[in-house]
Fold this sequence. Notes:
Largest sheet: 4 strands, antiparallel
Oligomer: single chain
Mean pLDDT: 87
Number of strands: 8
Low-confidence stretches: 1-6
Strand content: 15-25%
CATH topology: Jelly Rolls
Amino acid sequence: MLSLTRKRKAPRGPQGLAHVPLFSGLDAKEHRVVAGLLHERRYEQGEVIFDQGEDSQALYVVISGKVLICRQGEAETGKIAEIGPGRAFGELAILGGYGRSAQARAAQVCVLQTLSRRDFEGLAESHKAIALKITLQIARQLARQLREQTGVISELPL
């Protein structure tokens, strides 16, 4: 039987970056600069993208498929989040060499684009305004996550 359902994909290239919240504050010219730094790779279902505790070297953008963020080796019981097309994860990697706080694995066949810390540092040297906008967006996302977690903690009985 023919399936008429289309798998969701994030648009590729500079135009596609406008749909990724991390890059939504950039203009078309800035999207082209960042797109030139991205590297694409396909992962098979179940393939580990990175392990918990591993030195972080890059952030990832999901182009197609889904990525599971989980506790190390606990794909079934340790689910933390599931990341779909058009979303980024591992953003702290470009800000410093932090160890990964969780494992990432392909929940299904997926295509990811990466921005390495080294390339981001080069971007910060050559295009300071672009790097600042991305860093500011990361700070906003982290602040939003912290507020959400604080709200959950404040609702717990003492």
